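In response to reviewer comment 3 from the previous cycle, which asked for concrete evidence that the modeling workflow produces usable outputs, we include below a single protein chain processed end to end. The sequence was submitted unchanged, and the resulting structure tokens are shown without manual editing.
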Amino acid sequence: MGKIKLLCVTGNCYPPKSGGEQAIFNAYKQIQDEVELHLFVICRDINEIDVLRTVLKDAHIYPYIRKRERFDVALGISKRLCNFIFRIGRVPQADKRRFLDVSFNLPERFDFYKELNSYIERQGIDIVQFEFIDWIFGRQGVIGNCKSVFVHHEIMHIADLPRLPKNRTVDDWLIYSIKKNREIIALNSYDAIITLSEDDKVRLMNAGVSVPIYPSFAQVSPLQFSPKQYNGTGDLVFIGPESHIPNKNGLLWFLENVWPQVLHNRPSTHLYVVGRWHEKTIELISSRHSNIVFLGFVDNLYENIRNRIVIVPIREGSGLRMKILDAINSGVPFVSCKVGAEGLKLENGVHGYITDDAAVFSRYVYELQINPAKCVQFVDNSIKHIASEFSNQQFVKSRLECYKSVLGGRSNA
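The workflow returned the following structure tokens.
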């Protein structure tokens, strides 16, 4: 029996524009030699995947050209009209939350599922894999005997819980509970779930997910440096786009609670923000805080974070934060909140600094600014830790364990 035929439904993930896309692309690179990898790539132009074909030479790449149909236009108009009515009617925020997203971002497009199922049948696909919350209901569109796997990058009911208003009403809690139930029901429709950490596996089991769950961490690009090359400037860098809510909330928390003391300790410090942020947000932050530089999306992440200190003030959500892996991979030290460091088995004071206390956070930053030897030590310890606990071989093993189990222990010979 030949290799497992794995079909991954994805957008164009190359070049990666976010931590999530980086995790997906690097996973494909690692497993393309171990399975017969098929990618069902959703794009608007077939030319978008030309570069992807050159870097994933062993993968079978099928472009699904998504056309902007009348349905898309009508849906966009209806959403804008709804927001307009809310605004002119001065509908309170609490009442807006009653407006449930019935589709839960489900891409309900008959033509897409028709083409997907046709490809599955033609190629004799063994397993179809969906990733990210936008595709959590993808299994419902797959017919036949093909097995299904969902890679859950972030548990939504865990991320949503701290965002409930402090004076939440019964309606607020009802909406949250309904969305949580739908998340669990959708996950239980798959043959297996892959999480990015052991912590998330436990959370899903406690929440009622009854199908097998396999922890399998994310991957970053190979190391590009020697730890001793670190020559700290004392400046900080935050990695992440505004579109991911934990990023925005985390950066705003840092600026309000930590940044003033950082500047007091070392007035020349600059904070560089990597990732796309809205112009209005940039203007607002720049009007309130000094020495903040927004770099936008960068082609070479390493060149923009080397010799700096990565901050990971993420205080909500789940999954595994590529920010810390990016820091370690680029040979720079980090200061993180506990959620930001979750899933990597990192120890405070050994691999980096980890705290949820704003005053301690600023003190940790200053210690790294004035102690280059400590920075080199942290980087060296972190590299050895990641190489030991999160090697490429262990990643491939964890994924194959899931796929073979789903197929009833089938050999990959």
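The chain is about 45% helix and 15% strand. We consider this sufficient to address the reviewer's concern, and the full set will be provided in the supplementary archive.
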